[in-house]
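--- STAGE predict ---
source: upstream dedup step, 1 unique chain passed
mode: sequence only
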Amino acid sequence: MRQSGDVYINIIPIKVGDILCVRNGKSFIARAITYFMKIYKRKRGISKDFPNYHHSAIVIDVWGVMYIAESVSKGFKIHKFDEAYSEKSWKERIDIITPVTPYTEIEAEMLCKIAVTYSFNITRYDFFNFIWQILLILFGRWMGPKGKKAENRLYCSEAVATIINYVRPDTFRNPSATNPIDVATSKSYRFL
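--- STAGE serialize ---
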């Protein structure tokens, strides 16, 4: 039975720790990211048929209501689903991945607290990361900031990887260099 706080995307119930993988963006930034993700997939040997994701967000719970936590142009934010994405875009643009090993209640609570804490801090979007990601794709080496130094500015998939690594260390090898394709192909997650 559906509870008042339950959220369904494409008839699939989502839960804390699930990740939204977004594709088919129309903005210049989304198209640019998609272009470089195609190159990245080719260099990593990922099938051309694998979706070209350009954005990632993580599902959290705030006082019994499901929210998404994501890094957007105005910084790291949490929003209710209907404020961030229309139901039409859920069906056409969003795939959901879920942890292979479900989060324990303690892990889920910790993940939510970390995400909410980031939303209270002034965590700007890392536009410089586009340059670092292009260099990574072209040269195969991360030259951008790492660790705590990188956490003052976060881009979408970096934010997801950073939050998850606080709960489950080493899920993502280098959160600072993690892009939407890295998130979607993580062996710790599977598609719903």
